[in-house]
Specification:
alpha/beta; TPR repeat; four-stranded mixed sheet
Length: 941
Amino acid sequence: MAEGHLPVRLSSFVGREAELAELAGLLGGRRLLTLTGPGGGGKTRLALTLAERLRPSYPGGVWWVGLAELTEPEAVLPAVAEAFALPEATEEAVAGKIADARLLLVIDNCEHLLGPAARLVRRLLRSCPSLTVLATSQEALGNPGESVFRVPPLGEAAVRLFVERAQAASYGFEQTAANAADIASICERLDGVPLAIELAAAWVPALSPAQIADRLDDSLRVLTGGDREAMPRHRTLRGALDWSWRLLDDPERALLAQLAVFPASFTIDGVEAVAELGDADVLQALSRLVNRSLVMVQQGDEVRYRLLQIVRQYAAHQLGEDPGPARRQAQYVLRLVERAARKLGGEEQQEWLDTLTEERRTIRSALRWFIDAGELESAARIAVGVWWAGYLLGRYGEVRSWLEEVLQLPGELPDALRAEALVAVGTLAHLQGDAELAETRLREGFAAYREAGDRTGEAMELNWLGGVAMRQGDYAEARRLGERCLALWRELGDESKVSRALDFQGMRELLAGELDQAGSLAREARARYEHDGDGEGLGWVTMLLGAVAHYRGERLVARTLLTEARRRGEANRQTATLAWSLHLLGAEARRDGELDESDRLLDESLRLHADSGNRWRVASLLEALAATAHARTDVPRAVRLLAHAASIREKLRTPVPAVEAADVSSVLEAARTAVPAEEFRRYWAEGEMLGLDALLGIERKSPAPVTIVESRIEPLGILALGVSEVRRNETVLDAADWGYAKPRELFYYLLDSGPVRKDQIGAELWPDASATSLRNSFHSCLHQLRRTLGRSDWITFRKGRYEFNRSLDHSYDVTDLESAVTSGDLQRAIDLYGGDYLTDLGGSPWIETRRQSLRQLFEDSLFTLASEYAATGRDAEAIALYERAIAHDPLLEPAHRALIQLHLSHGNRAQAVRQYKLLSSLLAEDLNTTPSPQTTALLRP
């Protein structure tokens, strides 16, 4: 047979090396692989490049069939026959041409002829045992045995693609420091979709990258042009989307247009709240949009959906001026926010904080809609509803700005709502050190509460005044006010506020240096939080008790409690808990002489406090950093840091907390005596004049790498086939060891992926994270993973890639299985297969792909060994293996067929007929089909 034919590629292929390697492995073990993804996502180019590379693996050739220009279902078979240069367009002729040849058939652009393409592929695979099919489609074919690979957006290669296409369009174009950020922004805003990036690059002769980026809010108008030889739907972005739109039914079009009101990812509840499809089923329409790659799926504890930005813009154009979906979405968000606000004090707290974090952009969109619509009360209810979550998560500035905007709008709010909004603004301003505005807003709010006859305001006022007294160093007044506040909350019967008042008062006693009283209050608060299931409160009081131990000099207890508080803060995104824990752990590291680690921890704490606008704590962090600088004998840096902290305290009118005062005074006096008075004054003046960023940049050492307290090398025993398990020196690592779910997933991803870049990891584990969010999430997760494994060198970093260190002592059942197959020990491979890969870790795309690959390896081992047994007369053993294959997957027709043949060879026709009837019923029930002609022919007289 000839070598086949492939289209000629007229431009280079950029990136996708990891995907090509993975797909080559998949094709080695599967007979039908379908590349899916949205229009313009690069499926055709990826399939063509993969086919070119795999030519040597297919002696029968690599053959290409393009369906894009076909319009009629009956044209599919003739197109395949034409690719093989057959004069007769029949299935028999095609199957006869292929026969037993080992060849690859690539069928491109199946989505508009899905039914006939799927039927033909299914029949050819049944008739031609050595045939492999690679298909591209916006929707999977839905055939038995099909592996589906969702083509991901381009990662770092997106920038390379833009630059290369821009250079082709404009000779002399270069990526520079000046335009790099704009190019990256273009690629990010276009979601890494290759067609969109190529069309954007085509504008380089006329526009700069910055000008292109500025115009992407109307991508459908801007992104036109491209290759004149390309199909019309690939010359403009709108053309590609028009193609997809025409393939939809009316309910699917209506739903896609209505989903455009979501600015970010959304849940099924959100879909059902927004959608109005008449008598059509919303879930069915959504499922079709997912299958057609127009709605992306994000797997997690809760499945979420999203639209690519270009699809969202297109859908918004289709929606037009209909205000209904946006109103329904805003009303849904209001209900969600108010429900969440009621759940932030109990055991469901973390779940709802996670929900509000996920819905952040959608909440902002709903708030803006209510403001623009003039619905002041609804806007205020959203802003008030999220303020406590903003406090818990350390997002003071954003929520405060929402509240301020609402309070400045014309119109009157109900008294209680206005009072709550004023107190919320005042509290957040107070936390950010904006004392004057805080006092104004808080007093207005407390007055509003009093006018409404609500004593809640009085308790809040006592709490605020106690906080002011604490920051001003008047600890006796802080204690008096705090005790009155606590008594009033008890009188009002608000148990959650009693818990808060206890831990607030415990913090005040801590800062006053009254460690016994602070510990007593914190323990009482902890007992209440444990009873209520308040995760945020537990994290905070754990930190508070760790702080008490730290200042008492109880080193082991302090590290234990502070590490646990840090873990809780990281896992639950509790900014205040995390920032305070890092601060005190940094101080502990300094006491142990670990100065690089001290700087690293203190830097991270400083960043968290600075990002949330808490200048009061920024001053304490600068003083702590000064102590570490002094320990290095870096007197100039220590003095500058102390001076800047002193200037902040002067502006805020707050002294050094009593519990910190001795350490700060000690460093200050030591610095005074270490250098001449004139030098000291110069360094002090520099610290007062420099901005914070400039100050921290002076003579700064490079941040130290993450360090782990190294244990001896303890071998790892790792299981992934079935329920996952990791043993360290025979001790099973449980959920508490892992901290949270993501480190375990990262562990298995690195274990099975080989060397990978951070962007590749992000695309699989955090697909919707921004660059900043990915950096923070990844490094926190990696640090937790290394802590869990006990040694940092289990995960290595070389040449920009992370990798599991296979040189250390470990065993892994997947590696053992693959080695057994390679060495020909198929019985061992079969015995090692304890179940599908990572059945307890959900269905992330990378897990599902690996799961399917290992299933196929297991099935191939079963069939190969069973065939060997049958060929050597060991029929009973062969039958047992085929029955195991059917138990593994009841729809494996080749296993049924082999059993029928074996029964017939022994003259047991009745058993063969029963096997055939079982297969028929399974296929009819699950796939609405019948056994293949090859199987049916076995029982013909």
